[in-house]
Write a structure and sequence with these properties.
alpha+beta, twelve-stranded mixed β-sheet, Amidase signature (AS) enzymes, 17 helices
Length: 670
């Protein structure tokens, strides 16, 4: 259906389907007429049927050429025959041109012929309109559907279908995308983004909050109009991806204000989306859960863009069984997102196909503010040390287990063994808690800095029964989120609503009230930043062997350990007590050390669902982090690090060796 007629039937809209086919004209034929045989068309249309989800034989049922505005067809364009392939009646030879004198180009007034694929012709004015297919968002992962007409603008598409009035998402034909080029490496790939980015034509992002939209949308549109008038409108992540040929189809739900909210009762304004895996009733995790679930649910979506502050891409990737991760902090331009905590915010990618995952990351890294040359990656480091973190789970090597692939431990063991074979090195084990306790005094003495010792000694328990990385992470996030987001928002909302306060979820409320009550002062925040720097330095010293040519590959199990129903009634996952002085969680350690962290689906395991009472299949992921002394110094200088290059190449090697596979959509990833 053409989108400007999407609310009408074909009969009401007075349009007819039409197919455009490109006919290659050789030099010998330029002065004459190229003929196309039935067999050529039959092969072409069968290929289209298998590779495109928009085009179908129905676009061949009418000969609508006479309705077009043009009186002379571009010489290498053929418009649909009079009947369907296979229905008999197609002529043995088809001519590409009407051959009428005079020249008038297609509907947009340009000399560029339309791309091959399905179209509709208006019977009223002869306009040629590209066809879109409408998909129902049955897992409720989208908050807004969009499309981009020929003028390049992004336009909202408020259409709902189905018995439950789900949002509809429009996708254009893949046939109408030009082949990938170095300038357009993502040609034809469809994507969505977490609704935290500012996008031309679409107003302010919702951040999952109606209160936020009520005061921000008007301000944003006014600002955007001023920017358009001055021709100074900034280019954001969506526009960058569109320039690379990717096709933007809509915005995904997120946890309110991108704070923790993995359960349905924590999302008060918009219903928490559904995770398609296992029993279909598991948490999608947060805060990029909508983006991860969309990728896990829909074949028609190739990748999604999320954001990661302290796990907001990685945890949803684990829960939904897709590829996802955060690059080195600052490696990809995040200026078009509404920031939660500038010290940690980064753009992340989610995809089912490891090849697409790497391609999108590579394209974004090359287009960043400090472009990174990763077009010709060097060989994998000759000396790449593998460290397996045992802080979350022990790896079971008990021979009595039999087939090791039958258990989560066995699957992880198999994956690590494949890494050892690929890299030609043996693993080492580490318990980060123990390493921290064993080395922190030596580290302080090595620095010969009393301030360092005081900082390390102060990594205690001012915040209750939480671990070191929890403590530092929360102090920084709470302060920066209130300074840049919560404080200005609460003040603006109160002013616009006669002193009333908005409804915000528990996590955001707890953070911002802590700041307002003086629970974290600016000096405490700056102290936490200094401790973060010390922790990053400790990682470069004891995990990456500072000034050593050895790079370290840290491998760990992902966060998904089995069922976690969406109706879980506590915050136990995020506020569980841990021992004083602990480094954990591992996810926050990577965040604080500015390290890339990629979650890779490596298998699936069975576990009983307390909701359905049946044994269900859950995805299993592994975490890969590469760190080196050089990378630590580059991160400190705010330059993209070589660890990105190593990780992308490693993922591609594992994919070629079948150690990593493209995952499926639906209940099971494999």
């Amino acid at each position: 259906m053409p989108l400007d007629h999407a609310t009408h039937s074909l009969a009401e809209a007075e349009i007819e389907p039409l197919t455009v086919v490109e006919i290659l004209v050789t030099g010998d034929e330029l002065g004459g007429e190229r003929r196309v045989t039935f067999e050529e068309l039959q092969v072409l249309f069968e290929k289209w049927r298998l590779t495109d989800d928009v085009w179908e034989n129905g676009f061949l049922k009418k000969d609508a050429r006479h309705k077009l505005q043009t009186e002379h067809y571009t010489s290498n364009i053929f418009c649909g025959p009079a009947s369907t392939i296979g229905d008999c009646g197609i002529r043995d030879e088809v001519h590409p041109s009407g051959g009428v004198e005079g020249h008038k180009d297609f509907h947009d007034g340009t000399s560029i012929a339309p791309s091959p694929g399905p179209y509709f012709v208006s019977l009223m004015d002869g306009r040629l309109m590209p066809a879109y297919r409408m998909y129902e968002d049955t897992y409720e992962t989208f908050i807004q559907s969009t499309y981009s007409p020929s003028n390049g603008k992004n336009v909202p598409l408020p259409i709902h279908t189905g018995k439950l009035n789900h949002l509809s998402v429009a996708v254009p034909s893949r046939l109408q995308s030009q082949p990938a080029t170095p300038e357009r490496p993502l040609a034809g790939l469809r994507f969505s983004v977490k609704d935290i980015f500012y996008i031309k034509g679409l107003g302010s992002p919702s951040l999952g909050s109606r209160a936020w939209v009520s005061i921000r949308d008007k301000q944003f549109l006014e600002r955007q109009q001023d920017q358009e008038a001055s021709n100074n409108e900034p280019e954001g992540i969506v526009e960058v991806l569109q320039k690379m040929g990717a096709v933007f189809v809509g915005k995904n739900k997120l946890s309110e204000f991108a704070f923790a909210g993995p359960y349905h009762w924590q999302n008060t304004d918009y219903l928490l989306n559904f995770n398609p895996r296992a029993d279909g009733l598991q948490t999608p995790s947060d805060s990029s859960g909508g983006s991860a679930s969309a990728v896990a649910a829909y074949d028609w979506l190739d990748f999604a863009i999320g954001t990661d502050t302290g796990g907001s891409v990685r945890l949803p990737a684990d829960a939904n069984g897709v590829y996802g991760g955060r690059p080195t902090t600052g490696a990809i331009d995040a200026s078009s997102m509404q920031s939660l905590a500038k010290s940690f915010d980064t753009v992340g990618v989610l995809a089912r196909d490891p090849a697409i995952y790497c391609e999108v990351l590579r394209a974004l890294l090359k287009s960043s503010l400090t472009p990174m040359d990763i077009s010709s990656p060097p060989p994998l480091p000759a000396r790449l040390k593998i460290i397996v973190s045992k802080d979350h789970d022990t790896i079971t090597k008990d021979a009595s287990l039999g087939d090791t692939t039958a258990t989560a431990d066995g699957i992880f063991e198999t994956f690590v063994s494949k890494l050892e074979t690929l890299l030609g090195v043996r693993r080492e084990y580490v318990i980060l808690d123990s390493l921290w306790e064993e080395t922190k005094e030596e580290f302080s003495n090595h620095r010969q800095n009393s301030a360092t010792g005081e900082l390390l000694a102060g990594m205690g328990n001012e915040f209750g029964d939480v671990g070191t990385s929890d403590l530092l992470y929360r102090k920084i996030v709470y302060w920066e989120s209130y300074r840049d987001l919560g404080g200005p928002f609460m003040k603006a909302y109160s002013k616009a609503n006669d002193g009333r306060l908005p409804l915000v979820n528990n996590s955001a409320k707890a953070a911002w009230k802590t700041i307002e009550a003086g629970g974290i002062s600016e000096s405490m925040y700056r102290d936490a930043l200094a401790k973060k720097h010390m922790l990053k330095s400790w990682v470069s010293t004891y995990l990456t062997e500072e000034y050593s040519p050895i790079s370290t590959l840290v491998v760990s199990r992902g966060s998904n350990q089995g069922e976690e129903p969406r109706d879980t009634q506590s915050d136990e996952r995020y506020f569980a007590p841990s021992q004083p002085g602990r480094i954990l969680p591992y996810t926050h350690l990577n965040t604080l050390a500015d390290l890339p962290d990629h979650r890779l689906p490596i298998g699936q395991f069975e576990s009983r669902s307390s909701v359905t009472g049946h044994t269900e299949i859950y995805p299993l992921t592994a975490s890969l982090t590469v760190a080196s002394a050089k990378q630590a110094r580059q991160a400190q200088a705010k330059k993209p690090a070589g660890g990105e290059r190593t990780l992308l190449e490693l993922i591609e090697h594992l994919h070629r060796d079948a150690a990593l596979e493209m995952v499926k959509t639906g209940r099971t990833a494999f």
